[in-house]
Design brief:
2-enoyl-CoA Hydratase, Chain A, domain 1; Lyase 2-enoyl-coa Hydratase, Chain  A, domain 2; 11 helices; about 15% strand
Length: about 260
Amino acid sequence: MSDAETLLIADAGPVRTLTLNRPDVFNAFDDELTTAMQRALKDAARDRGVRVLILTGAGRAFSSGQDLASLKERFSADYVPEYKRDLDRRYNPIITAIAAMEKPVIAAVNGVAAGAGASLALACDMRIASEHASFIEAFVNVGLIPDSGSTWFLPRLVGSGLAFELCATGRKVGAEEAARIGLVNRTVPAGELMEVAEAEAAKLASLPPRAIALTKRLLHRALSSDLAGQLDAEAYAQDVLGRTKDHHEGMAAFLEKRAPEFTGS
């Protein structure tokens, strides 16, 4: 299967959708898919025509995580996996690319998001879940710890106590609970998932891109910043944005009682 088949890429105006396309194995990650994801994220970050990214899965799953079947031939009693090398080469570049991208990334979670698939969803800026979605930090079931950013994102979304429970037990969180505990922004009927995600993406795409980019950057910075440092960073960002054409357009539109047209300049 080629990259193009493994990962589907579709544009609708300024919104790009990446669809993990290995439905026969619940969109599990193999080398080909992680390579395609890295390339597609890099392209989306560089493409000025793309303002918002949606990630979703084909078929019944978002992603079941690492394709463990691919390890079957290598696994034996004396097999010593090199997980750090694998994470540094395949998964961590995907997570850091999403976090560093100065564009909103929405996860449209259509089904199970397990292991690294859950980590992928957590790394996104927003998560909209189908009623059939579920989240499983499945790593403990094979004697491992959550990786690909799960131990960083999860406690920041749901709190440390609940994060420990979910990581240590590997229990499944259904869509309704995910919405209740703040793991997802909202849950919608399965048939409306992409319509809702695309509407949310279109709304974000209509807003000033540089303001959105700096908002994302500041929210990430706030997780490791003190108040004084964050106030200073906000002031600097506001000063930068105050010199943009989009700020002047927004002010003019407000005073003239019309809808603004933001261009990203």
